[in-house]
């Protein structure tokens, strides 16, 4: 049985849908990537699994933001979509107007989405932990980092006082921070960006969770630091047998770290495959497009990159057809003739034209 | 109490500085649109509008001469018994037998006058001081920086004195009169406006469009007058609206302390409220009319000012 | 931290010096000059001369300023024109009452304001939030002396629930320790005195608390709203911490930074509000004294008052600044 089984996860903020039926699994000890542009719903997915989305106030919800849905015009090349201003993204920035979460996210057979808040709080930080994108803003500026580590140890492992401090120092040492005993007394603003991210990782692995979710853990860091942090993550995961759900827009990170990949577009998985398979035979035009947007050394200097046209705001609703259709080079009649299904088992994709293209 | 708003002042400055970097025209329009949708702003605007109309049309609306007394017939000062509301005197008579309704209506004009003049004194003097400081500090070279430092330290000292005390000391110099109240309340606002305008102008001075104007060789004086100054006015207008509320309340407090208009015939809400304190247990209505009028008017200006501030503040906007 | 403190102290002494200059200018500008204020109307020219000489009014201005400063440092503000006693003594006698009243008001404002502001933020958009926000807007718009008078009429005169004036019931025997009657009663074990003093304190303290309460509710609400949206609160949540821990260590500890600043600023303006409140309740503090001094144009008394308040205010500012350093490691600890 898979460690984490996400099934038909849907998240809506008022009338705006951020996640529109995402399904994937994470097996024990595996590293699974969740890839897509910003706004595709990958961060919301992770927050929904962690139960960290702002709770909706039934009946009291604020007016929804304009939904980024454009009417699907008849095909014939004229698949032009209006570009609305706002793209509903993560829970951050939407402080009220809570999220409506539906579907299933079974962790070890227990559905996290229906779990009582107190039971979920006992799981968070112990069984499943999360590493966030911006290490500076994710650490409390007025609390010494030592305390920010020991509070997890205290909460989930019952360690107190000196024992907790000692363990915290061990953890810092383990994530590669020199002179850990002294660092415990320091505040986040005294550390460098890479160090802060290491502290966040130390906090996340403090209770040896079975699943670690990393939401773009290297985006805010310098390139050289990025590599170190990824190395550290890989090392921790390998040695502890922790499963890792890696959320990123960076296919380079995926190639170096992941066992399996799920490509997300407009709140849905469009392609899912083992990492080698995906890079060898990308099937969905969106995946192809993502790969084409990466600068490559093995291509000639005069060969242009092939960026994906338009923006993620140019979409149609999944139930009317393929959300990627407005931006797709190979768009055809069948693409907008109703909901495209996810086909295939090991290497699954959601493109009705896949056969023709192949 | 306005001193407590300093944090807000700085935030206001910050807010408009960032907002101005975007397109200014559309920003003003956006803010206006947001204001029209805000119940706070609409309520405030309606109250302020009514108040201004009454103040302007006052003599036309008042049924009686606000100073005409009906001694001896119905009013017994020594027993503190005054006729209450009735058909011919909607709000009853005061302790000198004057029609309260007429006095309230005429009083609106005096109250508005006190509020506006006091705010203008604070605004203009504060704007000159803050403007000079900012301009000197930005363009005056080394000496200019010193001038700015001296000015701003003095402003900080003045800010350190609670406003009522500042008003008290001014009133002590000038003796009791209506202009004392206006000057006293106005002077007390000077440091606030000075600080606000300086902060606002400095934020503008370091903004990209001013830097590019400097780089293009536009004369410094012209940059200050035609770019920095007009763009710094947003927060000043907001603050002026808020200060109008405070000015009306502070003026009432000074009247209560006996520093207001010594002329017993004059109708001004603060003076009326202060006068009525003597009869509070026997005839509370005499105090309640002017008190409610002051509270509602102050609330109107506060609502309007706060709504304007919020519509300019991107940090608050993000939370909406 | 030491350098920070020293720097603050230096800035404050500059501010105080500037203030003394302002006061000196004010004193010089009094109508008719100081000597006319200090002498009876029918004083002879000889008396006038003598006073001018004794006050050093014929000396150069900077010498006069030096003298002025010297007298201030010695706490010699001259004698009150109405009572004839030294202003410093008058003020010292009345200060405890005002301190007691201000502290009580601040306790109410903080004790009610912070929880209320927190709840309003947490239940944003509910009726509770709406009530708290509109109540606090209203609170800043009520003239304090009117509120005090209404409280007195309703709760003391009409309902008879609480005493109408003074700090203790007539004829009450008390032992003076700190001058704060409630505290004194508790220290000496005279609990009936403490209770009596507390009853006398309730109405004036509530009236005086109205504005700080309103300000604290709003600032707490805004500050908490800012903080709960921060990433580190989400991190705390992701750690599975108990709600109480998140609230205390992660939300409130950060939200307190702006609240602490405001509380300090409010303490200073409370003293000004006390002038109005005390006169309504004949509370016998500095406020009543100043009310009298204002109506009787007792300039030495006014000057002494302004100076005392200003010093108080400046000292409170220092404490706030220092506590800010204590609360916020980013100020205290450099990289």
Describe this structure as you would to a colleague.
- The complex is a heterotrimer of chains A (358), B (320) and C (335).
- In chain A, strand 4 (99-107) and strand 5 form a beta hairpin.
- Chain A has 11 helices and 11 strands.
- Chain A is 29% helix and 19% strand.
- Chain A folds into 2 domains: 4-127 and 209-357, 3-Layer(aba) Sandwich (Rossmann fold), CATH 3.40.50.300; 136-208, no CATH class.
- Chain A has helices at residues 42-50, 117-123, 145-157, 161-174, 180-183, 193-205, 223-240, 251-257, 275-280, 285-292, 354-357; strands at 4-13, 16-26, 31-35, 99-107, 110-111, 128-131, 211-215, 243-248, 260-265, 268-274, 348-349.
- With 358 residues, chain A is an alpha/beta fold.
- Chain A has a 7-stranded mixed sheet with strand order 6-7-8-3-9-10-11, with helices on both faces. Chain A has a 4-stranded antiparallel sheet with strand order 2-1-4-5, with helices on one face.
- Chain B is an all-alpha fold.
- In chain B, helix 2 packs across helix 11 (285-312), helix 6 (163-174) packs across helix 7 and helix 7 packs antiparallel against helix 9 (220-256).
- Residues 1-5, 18-24 and 316-320 of chain B have low confidence and may be disordered.
- The two termini of chain C are 13 Å apart.
- The mean pLDDT of chain C is 82.
- Chain C folds into 2 domains: 2-73, no CATH class; 89-334, Orthogonal Bundle (MetI-like fold), CATH 1.10.3720.10.
- Chain C contains 14 helices and no strands.
- At the B-C interface, helix 5, helix 6, helix 9, helix 11 and helix 12 of B face helix 1, helix 7, helix 9, helix 11 and helix 12 of C.
- Chain A: It holds the Pfam family oligo_HPY.
- Chain A: One of its GO terms (molecular function) is ATP hydrolysis activity.
- Chain A: It comes from Glycomyces harbinensis.
- Chain A: Belongs to the ABC transporter superfamily.
- Chain A: Keywords: ATP-binding, Cell membrane, Membrane, Nucleotide-binding, Transport.
- Chain C: It is a multi-pass membrane protein.
């Amino acid at each position: 049985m898979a460690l984490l089984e996400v099934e038909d996860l849907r998240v809506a903020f008022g009338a705006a849908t951020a996640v529109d039926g995402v399904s994937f699994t994470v097996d024990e000890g595996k590293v699974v990537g969740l890839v897509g542009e910003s706004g595709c719903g990958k961060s919301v997915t992770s927050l929904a699994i962690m139960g960290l989305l702002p709770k909706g106030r039934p009946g009291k919800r604020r007016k929804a933001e304009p939904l980024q849905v454009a009417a699907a015009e008849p095909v014939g090349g004229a698949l032009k979509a209006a570009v609305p201003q706002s793209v509903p993204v993560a829970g951050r920035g939407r402080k009220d107007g809570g999220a409506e979460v539906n579907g299933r996210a079974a962790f070890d057979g227990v559905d996290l989405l229906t779990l009582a808040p107190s039971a979920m709080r006992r799981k968070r930080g112990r069984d499943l932990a999360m590493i966030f994108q911006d290490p500076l803003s994710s650490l409390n500026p007025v609390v010494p980092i030592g305390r920010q580590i020991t509070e997890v140890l205290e909460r989930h492992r019952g360690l107190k006082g000196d024992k907790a401090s000692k363990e915290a120092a061990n953890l810092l040492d383990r994530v590669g921070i020199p002179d850990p005993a002294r660092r415990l007394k320091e505040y986040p603003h005294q550390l460098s960006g890479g160090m802060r991210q290491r502290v966040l990782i130390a906090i996340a692995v403090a209770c040896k969770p079975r699943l670690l979710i990393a939401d773009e853990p290297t985006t805010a860091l310098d390139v050289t630091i990025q590599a170190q942090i990824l190395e550290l993550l890989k090392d921790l995961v390998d040695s502890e047998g922790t499963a890792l759900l890696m959320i990123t827009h960076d296919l380079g990170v995926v190639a170096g770290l992941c066992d399996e990949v799920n490509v997300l577009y407009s709140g849905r998985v469009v392609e899912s495959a083992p990492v080698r398979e995906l890079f060898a035979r990308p099937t969905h035009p969106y995946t192809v497009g993502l790969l084409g947007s990466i600068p490559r050394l093995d291509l000639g200097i005069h060969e242009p990159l092939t960026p994906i046209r338009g923006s993620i705001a140019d979409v149609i609703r999944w139930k009317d057809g393929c959300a990627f259709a407005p931006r797709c080079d190979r768009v055809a009649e069948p693409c907008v003739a109703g909901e495209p299904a996810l086909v295939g088992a090991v290497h699954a994709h959601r493109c009705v034209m896949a056969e023709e293209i192949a | 109490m306005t001193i407590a708003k300093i944090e807000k002042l700085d935030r206001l400055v910050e807010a408009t500085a960032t907002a101005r970097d975007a397109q200014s025209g559309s920003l003003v329009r956006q803010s206006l649109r947001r204001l029209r949708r805000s119940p706070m702003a609409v309520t405030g605007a309606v109250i302020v509008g009514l108040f201004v109309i009454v103040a302007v049309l006052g003599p036309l609306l008042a049924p009686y001469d606000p100073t005409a007394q009906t001694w001896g017939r119905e009013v017994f000062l020594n027993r503190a018994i005054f006729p209450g509301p009735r058909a011919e005197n909607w709000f009853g008579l005061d302790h000198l037998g004057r029609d309260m309704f007429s006095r309230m209506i005429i009083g609106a004009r005096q109250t508005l006058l006190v509020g506006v003049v006091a705010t203008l004194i604070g605004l203009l003097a504060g704007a000159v001081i803050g403007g000079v400081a900012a301009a000197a500090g930005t363009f005056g070279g080394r000496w200019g920086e010193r001038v700015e430092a001296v000015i701003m330290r003095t402003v900080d000292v003045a800010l350190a004195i609670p406003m009522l005390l500042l008003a008290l000391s001014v009133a002590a110099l000038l003796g009791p009169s209506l202009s004392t109240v206006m000057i006293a309340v106005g002077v007390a606002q000077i440091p606030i406006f000075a600080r606000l305008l300086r902060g606002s102008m400095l934020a503008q001075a370091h903004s990209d469009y001013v830097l590019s104007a400097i780089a293009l060789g536009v004369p410094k004086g012209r940059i200050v007058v035609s770019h920095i100054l007009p763009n710094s006015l947003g927060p000043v207008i907001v603050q002026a609206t808020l200060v109008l509320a405070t000015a009306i309340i502070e003026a009432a407090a000074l009247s209560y302390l006996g520093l207001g208009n010594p002329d017993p015939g004059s109708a001004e809400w603060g003076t009326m409220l202060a006068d009525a304190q003597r009869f509070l247990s026997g005839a509370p209505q005499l105090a309640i009319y002017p008190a409610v009028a002051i509270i509602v008017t102050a609330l109107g200006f506060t609502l309007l000012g706060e709504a304007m501030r919020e519509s300019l503040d991107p940090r608050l906007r993000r939370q909406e | 931290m030491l350098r920070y403190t020293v720097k603050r102290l230096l800035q404050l002494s500059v501010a105080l010096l500037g203030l003394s200059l302002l006061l000196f200018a004010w004193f010089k500008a009094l109508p008719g000059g100081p000597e006319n204020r200090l002498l009876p109307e029918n004083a002879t020219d000889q008396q006038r001369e003598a006073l001018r000489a004794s006050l050093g009014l014929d000396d150069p201005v900077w010498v006069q300023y030096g003298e002025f400063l010297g007298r201030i440092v010695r706490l010699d503000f001259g004698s009150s024109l109405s009572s004839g006693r030294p202003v410093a003594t008058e003020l010292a006698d009345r200060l405890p009452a005002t301190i007691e009243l201000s502290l009580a008001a601040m306790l109410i404002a903080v004790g009610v304001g912070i929880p209320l502001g927190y709840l309003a933020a947490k239940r944003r958009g509910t009726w509770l939030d709406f009530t708290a926000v509109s109540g606090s807007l209203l609170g800043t718009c009520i003239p304090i002396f009117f509120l005090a008078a209404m409280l007195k009429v309703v709760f003391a005169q009409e309902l008879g629930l609480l005493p109408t004036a003074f700090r203790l019931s007539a004829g009450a025997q008390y032992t003076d320790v700190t001058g704060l009657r409630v505290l004194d009663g508790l220290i000496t074990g005279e609990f009936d005195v403490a209770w009596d003093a507390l009853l006398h304190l309730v109405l004036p303290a509530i009236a005086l608390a109205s504005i700080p309460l309103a300000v604290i509710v709003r600032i707490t609400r805004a500050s908490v709203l800012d903080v709960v949206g921060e990433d580190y609160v989400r991190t705390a949540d992701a750690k599975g911490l108990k709600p109480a821990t998140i609230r205390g260590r992660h939300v409130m500890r950060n939200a307190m930074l702006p609240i602490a600043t405001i509380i300090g600023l409010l303490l200073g303006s409370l003293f000004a509000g006390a002038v109005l409140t005390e006169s309504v309740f004949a509370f016998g503090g500095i406020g009543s004294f100043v009310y009298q001094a204002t109506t009787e144009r007792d300039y030495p008394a006014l000057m002494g008052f302004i100076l005392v308040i200003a010093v108080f205010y400046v000292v409170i500012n220092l404490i706030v600044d220092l506590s800010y350093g204590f609360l916020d490691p980013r100020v205290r600890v450099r990289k």
